[in-house]
């Protein structure tokens, strides 16, 4: 992860927001390459989820809505995470991410309690042992024989009672200085206009903008059920503990579809269809299959509005976590807005002559998380001519720079001129690079490190021999082929766009 974060900063993918002022926790800025990569993810979503389907249309709704939208959707009342403070260090924790349990001696008697951050079991075990050692030393506790810790019995802090909390040490102070968990609403509030008295909110998901426009879109674009409305846009959540780089941030982008279907059992089929469609989309972006998995939510793990939800998970360097979710939300949202607004959101099926509130399947992905999964999937190291090489194996369709055009020597105007002409043609269609500085091998390395799939070199054969060929070098294999310069556009078109 450290290597990846270092590369992201060094090569202009991601910067800490407000770095000049020592940062701004949970906010990130995407640099020249990062913004290109993000934009490619979004345009792939637009082309695969919207343009390639005749049953999905797009929407771009406002970030700030009438606050009643968020009351009806349940976000004002219930969009919260449990939070605990450490009274001594003033550190703030998400209570469901702290796990506590006893340390026992050889006789099975409790020696002390420990409390660690949620992580891989092995890391939690190691942290718990470290903490126990420190507490035993600090408190001068007499221990008989070896101590044991059974992480599998640990519970998260939301299960602690008032009396438990008197024993549970804060991971910061190592003393029982944690407060009881209390709900913290994750919506950022703001005020609209000069004399507003009620708060407005920055949207925490793009989905509600879709639900409240259901009738507008259906009426204006004459869509018939089943059909979907997709939206790409910013979402804001005042996360208690933003962490793991862009994985959990306070400002991020979502790509969501609300796919409206008839009530009844058919949702199972549609849900399965969207699971497969979503997974194929992630594969097409270059997210590694062997690092992805499914997490089927059930019982307590289901959000209050969902009748089913399956996450696609990804094995990030910091552990396996949710990449995107595909939820069957029933008719919860449209019903809630019908009640809240007092206006009918029923659909009239002209064929069956039935009226009903449509049900919904919702594929929802975070662009920033997919960005991170693509970076992790693409990161590679090998050895070329006895030297270590770091490169990014991006699919051409998502690569920030599609090709680097290189005149072999920068002091030969006849080479530079031909290369410049090729660059001028290609840049009208793609983000390509023109690089003249340094030896050709160094230029290849620079292109590899930012994941440019093709390097096209104009050399003396191009200008002196018949056929006017250039070399095309492939990033992953370093293999080179020659092709006529006027075939380059067609070749790149097939490799990048598939036509
Ligand atoms: N409309 C449903 C919804 O918003 P969610 O599971 O809360 O569901 C959907 O969010 C996706 O948005 C997640 O799978 C994740 O990819 C992304 N996401 C959620 N919170 C995020 C955060 N704090 N930072 C980055 N991405 C986030």
Automatic annotation (TrEMBL):
Query: Which CDD domains would you find in this protein's record?
Result: GlyRS-like_core, GlyRS_anticodon
Biological process (GO) annotations held by this record are: glycyl-tRNA aminoacylation; mitochondrial DNA replication; small molecule metabolic process
Q: Which InterPro entries match?
A: aa-tRNA-synt_IIb (IPR002314), aa-tRNA-synth_II (IPR006195), aa-tRNA-synth_II/BPL/LPL (IPR045864), Anticodon-bd (IPR004154), Anticodon-bd_dom_sf (IPR036621), Gly-tRNA_synthase/POLG2 (IPR027031), GlyRS-like_core (IPR033731), tRNA-synt_gly (IPR002315)
Judged by the first EC level, this protein's enzyme class is ligase
Enzyme Commission designation = 6.1.1.14
Give the residue range of the signal peptide.
none
UniProt entry keywords in alphabetical sequence:
Aminoacyl-tRNA synthetase, ATP-binding, Cytoplasm, Ligase, Nucleotide-binding, Protein biosynthesis
Q: Name one GO molecular function term.
A: glycine-tRNA ligase activity
Query: Key word Flavoprotein present in the record?
Result: no
* TM region positions: none
PROSITE patterns the UniProt entry points to: AA_TRNA_LIGASE_II
Can you list the GO cellular component terms from the UniProt entry? mitochondrion
Ranges for the Aminoacyl-transfer RNA synthetases class-II family profile domain? Answer: 176-396
Q: What is this protein called?
A: glycine--tRNA ligase
The organism named in the record is Triparma strigata
Q: What is the lineage of its organism?
A: Eukaryota, Sar, Stramenopiles, Ochrophyta, Bolidophyceae
């Amino acid at each position: 992860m450290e290597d990846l974060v270092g590369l992201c900063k060094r090569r202009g993918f991601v910067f800490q927001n407000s770095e000049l002022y020592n940062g701004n926790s949970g906010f990130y800025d995407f640099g020249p390459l990062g913004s290109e990569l993000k934009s490619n993810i979004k345009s792939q979503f637009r082309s695969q989820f919207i343009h390639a389907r005749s049953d999905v249309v797009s929407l771009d709704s406002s970030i700030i809505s009438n606050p009643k939208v968020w009351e009806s959707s349940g976000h004002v009342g219930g969009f919260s995470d449990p939070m605990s403070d450490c009274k001594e260090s003033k550190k703030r924790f998400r209570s469901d991410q702290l796990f506590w349990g006893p340390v026992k001696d050889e006789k099975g008697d409790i020696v002390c309690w420990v409390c660690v951050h949620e992580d891989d079991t092995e890391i939690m075990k190691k942290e718990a042992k470290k903490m126990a050692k420190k507490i035993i030393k600090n408190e001068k506790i007499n221990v008989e024989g070896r101590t044991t810790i059974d992480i599998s019995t640990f519970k998260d802090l939301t299960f602690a009672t008032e009396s438990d909390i008197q024993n549970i040490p804060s991971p910061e102070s190592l003393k029982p200085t944690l407060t009881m968990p209390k709900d913290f609403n994750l919506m950022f509030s703001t005020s609209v206009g000069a004399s507003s008295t009620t708060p407005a909110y920055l949207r925490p998901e793009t989905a509600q903008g879709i639900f409240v426009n259901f009738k507008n879109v259906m009426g204006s674009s004459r869509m018939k059920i089943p059909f979907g409305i997709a939206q790409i846009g910013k979402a804001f959540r005042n996360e208690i503990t933003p962490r793991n780089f862009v994985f959990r941030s306070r400002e991020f982008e979502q790509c969501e579809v609300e796919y409206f279907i008839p009530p009844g059992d058919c949702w199972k089929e549609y849900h399965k269809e969207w699971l497969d469609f979503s997974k194929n989309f992630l594969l097409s972006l270059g997210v590694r299959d062997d690092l992805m998995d499914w997490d089927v939510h059930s019982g307590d793990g289901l959000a209050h509005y969902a009748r089913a939800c399956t996450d696609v998970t990804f094995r990030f360097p910091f552990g396996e976590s949710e990449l995107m979710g595909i939820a069957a939300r029933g008719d919860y949202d449209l019903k809630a807005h019908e009640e809240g607004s007092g206006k009918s959101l029923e659909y009239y099926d002209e064929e069956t002559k039935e009226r009903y509130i449509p049900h919904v399947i919702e594929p929802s992905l975070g662009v920033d998380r997919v960005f991170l999964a693509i970076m992790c999937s693409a990161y590679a190291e090998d050895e070329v001519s006895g030297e270590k090489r770091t490169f990014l194996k991006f699919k051409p369709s998502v690569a920030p720079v599609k090709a680097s055009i290189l005149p072999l020597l920068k002091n030969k105007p006849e080479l530079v001129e031909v290369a410049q002409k090729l660059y001028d043609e290609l840049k009208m269609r793609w983000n390509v690079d023109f690089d003249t500085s340094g030896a050709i091998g160094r230029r290849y390395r620079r292109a590899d490190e930012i994941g440019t799939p093709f390097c096209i070199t104009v050399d003396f054969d191009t200008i002196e021999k018949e056929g006017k060929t250039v070399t095309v070098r492939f990033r992953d294999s370093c293999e080179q082929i020659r092709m006529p310069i006027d075939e380059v556009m067609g070749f790149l078109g097939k490799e990048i766009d598939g036509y």
